[in-house]
């Protein structure tokens, strides 16, 4: 028994951490012992009988909501000849419940944790102060448990002055970080209000979600913003807190990279974005906390691969997005390595995560600014093209007017009635095209034409060419035509009206011609009908006028042509809007 006591004392001496006022900081966890309570039934009355194992890791990670308690035994020895005051810091604000006890007296030293409703501290991380008398050795127990959040344990031992100085610096850096992130988000939101570009909206929503997540992750929210009771309620929805910013990052990436130009990739991403909320809901309903981040991380990897593909395909915005993703993923990798005790970059660069998020926000914001710049340049080029096209239209209009003048001069010099009629028909055809260009000159939108104005101009020219005051023309149209279809329809109307005026009515008969054009569900219905004498369609199929109508209706408009001579002449054309 004596030997066993000697061994225990010797083993405790090996694990004990020697402290004095001269050492401002000690990493504590690697000088402790650990016991895993899988039954979650141990208390201070029973834990002293359990066998602890020596721990040499400076950080311990147990994943999301492990189903056990972790007990840590801490040995501290004051090697100086005067009392020493120290602060023990538990460097993780996300652990659900932590409790510190003094081993000898079983005194409760600290009750804290994310879900503890009685937090009373001004520091980000849980901590408490202890005093070691000269040459005193003190044993302290830590009990840690997480039922929703991650269980990551890291312990530090500080001199009070050093701890408070460190805490002030840390909180100032966090304040600057959240302030910078907030300003970037506000700036992009103001731009969204002025541009209504949806990429900006997705950016704003994504980074608002990231800010909220990071406020919770760093323990700032429950310390300064929300009460511990509210925090315990919010944390129940942690699956959504993780998923929402990732979801909007995906929409932002899809929009800024214009993934519609990559149909297969865009379709695959859309499928995942549909099932992603469903998977999140399943994780929440069935309490699969260990898989809470899995689908979000999978989506982030998918977005990084998509961005890399876009970069290879010379997507201009992809270089900004890729830079942001690389910094973001290095941060995630370092957090993983740190939580598993493999490599802790945060000892050297404690604010690398904040730096990486800020760089990502700036990179993504630059991609938005570059996209807006490209859109503005495209808009300027488009305006220049419109001006050039208008100038070209104006010149074509002048040229057609010159041609019409030549035809009129030629017509005036010819006395042969048949020749005059031929020239008149040619003049009307040129007038129809000229009217279209004249109409395009008066509108800002040169891609479409108001059919009512265009047809009215053609009808007016035809009525002037053939003086038959007893023939009336009724026009009924509510549709607009693209400029190509307008040319074909104008020529068809000109040819049909000319035929009606020449052959359907004599000089004494009253007559009526109706012209209608309507569009229903992407289908145009063009109808020209007169109540004249009609004609024999079999004998007229070889005429030039009918050839022109058939060519324009069937080949150019790709429509269906129907001619009915039951009661006068009715020409009907149906075609799809290909504009």
UniProtKB/TrEMBL annotation:
Query: TM spans, by residue?
Result: 172-193, 200-217, 237-257, 269-286, 292-312, 324-343
Task: Tell me which residues make up the 7TM-DISM receptor extracellular domain.
Answer: 31-158, 171-371
Q: Does the keyword Transmembrane helix apply?
A: yes
GO MF annotation list = ATP binding; protein histidine kinase activity
Q: InterPro entries this protein is in?
A: 7TMR_DISM_rcpt_extracell_dom1, 7TMR_DISM_rcpt_extracell_dom2, HATPase_C_sf, Sig_transdc_His_kin_sub2_dim/P
Keyword set includes Chloroplast = no
Signal transduction histidine kinase subgroup 2 dimerisation and phosphoacceptor domain location: 391-465
Q: Which domain of life is it from?
A: Bacteria
As recorded in UniProt, its EC number(s) are: 2.7.13.3
* This protein's UniProt keywords: ATP-binding, Kinase, Membrane, Nucleotide-binding, Phosphoprotein, Transferase, Transmembrane, Transmembrane helix
Give the reactions, separated by semicolons, that this protein catalyses.
ATP + protein L-histidine = ADP + protein N-phospho-L-histidine
Q: Which Gene3D superfamilies match?
A: 2.60.40.2380, Histidine kinase-like ATPase, C-terminal domain
Identify one Pfam family in the record.
Answer: 7TMR-DISMED2
What PANTHER family does this protein's entry cite? ETHYLENE RESPONSE SENSOR PROTEIN (PTHR41523:SF8), TWO-COMPONENT SYSTEM SENSOR PROTEIN (PTHR41523)
> Which protein, by its recorded name, is this?
histidine kinase
Q: Which organism is it from?
A: uncultured Sulfurovum sp
């Amino acid at each position: 028994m004596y030997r066993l006591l000697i061994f225990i004392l010797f083993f405790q001496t090996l694990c004990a951490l020697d402290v004095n006022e001269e050492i401002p900081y000690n990493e504590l966890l690697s000088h402790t012992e650990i016991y895993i309570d899988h039954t979650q039934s141990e208390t201070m009355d029973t834990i002293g009988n359990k066998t602890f194992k020596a721990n040499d890791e400076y950080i311990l990670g147990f994943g999301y909501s492990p189903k056990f308690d972790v007990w840590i035994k801490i040995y501290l020895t004051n090697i100086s000849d005067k009392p020493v005051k120290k602060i023990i810091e538990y460097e993780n604000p996300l652990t659900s419940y932590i409790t510190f006890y003094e081993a000898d007296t079983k005194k409760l030293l600290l009750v804290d944790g994310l879900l503890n409703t009685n937090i009373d501290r001004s520091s980000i991380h849980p901590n408490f102060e202890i005093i070691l008398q000269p040459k005193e050795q003190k044993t302290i127990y830590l009990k840690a448990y997480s039922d929703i959040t991650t269980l990551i344990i890291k312990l530090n031992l500080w001199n009070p002055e050093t701890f408070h100085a460190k805490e002030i610096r840390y909180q100032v850096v966090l304040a600057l970080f959240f302030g910078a992130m907030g300003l970037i988000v506000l700036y992009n939101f103001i731009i969204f209000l002025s541009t209504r570009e949806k990429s900006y909206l997705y950016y704003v929503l994504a980074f608002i979600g990231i800010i909220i997540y990071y406020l919770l992750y760093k323990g700032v929210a429950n310390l300064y913003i929300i009460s511990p009771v509210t925090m315990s309620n919010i944390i129940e929805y942690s699956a959504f807190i993780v998923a929402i910013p990732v979801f909007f990052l995906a929409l932002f990436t899809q929009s800024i990279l214009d993934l519609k130009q990559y149909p297969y990739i865009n379709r695959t991403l859309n499928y995942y974005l549909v099932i992603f909320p469903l998977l999140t809901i399943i994780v929440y309903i069935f309490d699969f906390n260990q898989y809470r981040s899995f689908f979000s991380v999978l989506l982030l990897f998918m977005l990084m691969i998509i961005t890399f593909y876009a970069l290879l395909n010379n997507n201009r915005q992809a270089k900004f997005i890729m830079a942001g993703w690389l910094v973001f993923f290095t941060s995630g990798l370092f957090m993983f390595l740190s939580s598993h005790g493999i490599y802790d970059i945060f000892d050297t660069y404690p604010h690398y995560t904040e730096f990486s998020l800020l760089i990502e926000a700036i990179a993504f914001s630059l991609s938005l600014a570059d996209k807006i710049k490209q859109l503005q340049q495209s808009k300027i080029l488009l305006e220049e093209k419109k001006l050039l096209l208008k100038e070209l239209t104006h010149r074509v209009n002048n040229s057609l007017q010159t041609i019409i003048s030549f035809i009129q001069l030629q017509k005036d010099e010819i006395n042969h009635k048949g020749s005059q009629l031929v020239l008149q028909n040619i003049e009307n055809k040129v007038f129809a095209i000229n009217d279209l260009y004249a109409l395009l000159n008066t509108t800002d939108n040169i891609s479409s034409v108001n059919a009512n104005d265009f047809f009215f101009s053609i009808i007016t020219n035809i009525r002037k060419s053939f003086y038959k005051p007893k023939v009336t023309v009724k026009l009924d149209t509510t549709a607009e035509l693209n400029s190509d279809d307008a040319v074909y329809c104008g020529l068809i109307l000109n040819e049909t009206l000319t035929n009606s005026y020449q052959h359907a009515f004599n000089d004494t008969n009253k007559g009526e011609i109706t012209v209608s054009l309507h569009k229903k569900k992407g289908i145009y219905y063009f109808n020209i009908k007169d109540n004249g004498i009609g004609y024999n369609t079999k004998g007229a199929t070889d005429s030039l006028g009918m050839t022109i109508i058939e060519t324009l209706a069937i080949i150019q408009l790709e429509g269906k042509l129907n001619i009915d001579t039951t009661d006068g002449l009715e020409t009907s054309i149906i075609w799809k809007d290909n504009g």
